[in-house]
Give the backbone structure.
Amino acid sequence: MTAIPWKNEFETGIMSVDHDHDSLIQAINSLCERLESDLSEVAVLRQLDEIHALIEAHFAAEEKTMIDTDYSGYADHKQDHDRLLNDILDIMDQVKSGKSIDWVSLLGNLTAKWFSVHFSTLDKAFHLQTHGAGNNGS
Ligand SMILES: [Fe+2]
Ligand SMILES: [Fe+2]
């Protein structure tokens, strides 16, 4: 099962940004698939930790550009990034509490919903400013 199937709603219309987001989602999907044979708590937490780190690295790169360019939307944008990272930590807490959860569906639904809104609004606004309107990033 693909945890996060690509959706049109993820597109910002800026080619290089959509490419980065697609790579991020593919990396998360491969981590989810890799676990199918081992659902022990340790293995699940390790995968979730790696997924958290991948997403965090993507966010850190964006936030660095925002700071470097004195982007006015930095605070709101970072707050939305932090919200997703905290929600992933919450899933990890549920796993640690021994709760039997379908974490792939939970993570897939959470991120797909968040990506659909964040990519097409905050990321689009930010990248249009840094890439320049009318540039499709190619
Ligand atoms: Fe992004
Ligand atoms: Fe972002």
Remarks:
- The chain has a mean pLDDT of 91.
- DSSP finds four helices and no strands in the chain.
- The pocket of fe (ii) ion (ligand 1) is lined by residues 21, 58, 62, 123 (CB under 6 Å).
